[in-house]
Amino acid sequence: MFSTNLLCLLYLLLALIMEFMLCVRSTPIRSFEHIGNSIEEQPEDVLIDLITRYGQTIMRARDDLENSKRTVDFGLSRGYSGAQEAKHRMAMAVANFAGGPGRKRKVDIRNIKD
């Protein structure tokens, strides 16, 4: 008997919770209209000035990039053959390095004078 009353109470509590969940109202979409659009509130001359300054900054950065002579060029802008050439040059530089890959030269200890 006790478990039946407890089970009925749990069912009733669950039904009330479900009913409450269905009745809860969410915030309507229209409530955010008072925030407004910050771009529309700005004067046109300020926006035009801002766009002009950003454009000048981008043009200046592009000119600096094109005029820089000390950039590393791996040949990627020249296509596949340019990239191959760059890989070949890097491999040759590593091979010519004293500690690089390749055949190690043996030092003849007998010929070294004290």
TrEMBL record:
Highest taxon of the lineage: Eukaryota
Q: Where in the cell is it found?
A: Secreted
Similarity section: Belongs to the diuretic hormone class 2 family.
Q: Which InterPro entries match?
A: DH2-like (IPR034439)
UniProt name for this protein: Diuretic hormone class 2
Give the signal sequence positions. Answer: 1-26
Any one Gene Ontology cellular component term annotated for this protein: extracellular space
UniProt keywords, alphabetically: Secreted, Signal
Q: Which PANTHER family match?
A: DIURETIC HORMONE CLASS 2
The record's GO molecular-function terms, alphabetically, read: diuretic hormone activity; G protein-coupled receptor binding
What is the organism field in this record?
Culex pipiens
Q: Which GO terms describe its biological process?
A: body fluid secretion
